[in-house]
Amino acid sequence: MMLPLTEHRNLFFQTELLQVKKGNKILEIGTGSGYQTAVLCQLGAKVYSIERQLELFKKASLFLPKLGYRAKKLIFGDGYKGLQEEAPFDSIIVTAGAPFVPKPLLNQLKIGGRLVIPVGETVQIMTLFIRTEEREFEQHEFGEFRFVPLLEDKN
Question: How far apart are CA 67 and CA 136, in angstroms?
């Protein structure tokens, strides 16, 4: 699977911000080709991944097992909603540019959990949220990035 160099940079930078530990329960928003899912699985994470585009979901569902990677769950759905029934998560990674930070994602983090999300329209600011208390978060910004847009189910 070949990704452009900038996409590799984006994915590895996000992964570094997550500070993944073996056994971490991670929600990925935007399965895409499955590349980030594979990286997280390789690091020993328990990955739950949501993809909004049916064709990408189908391809990743077939492709990942062929390579020997098994996510805990691959879901076809709306990433803006997260995955409440499996929460809380150690980390959440959003691999598409979001115009705003979806509140359900923040709510699905455990205390000490990390949300990595590129926020913005055309150009995004890579943003890390760390849940410090039930209703408190630290926020850190890491410069400009460009991602495909995060799609929301308007139905």
Answer: 39
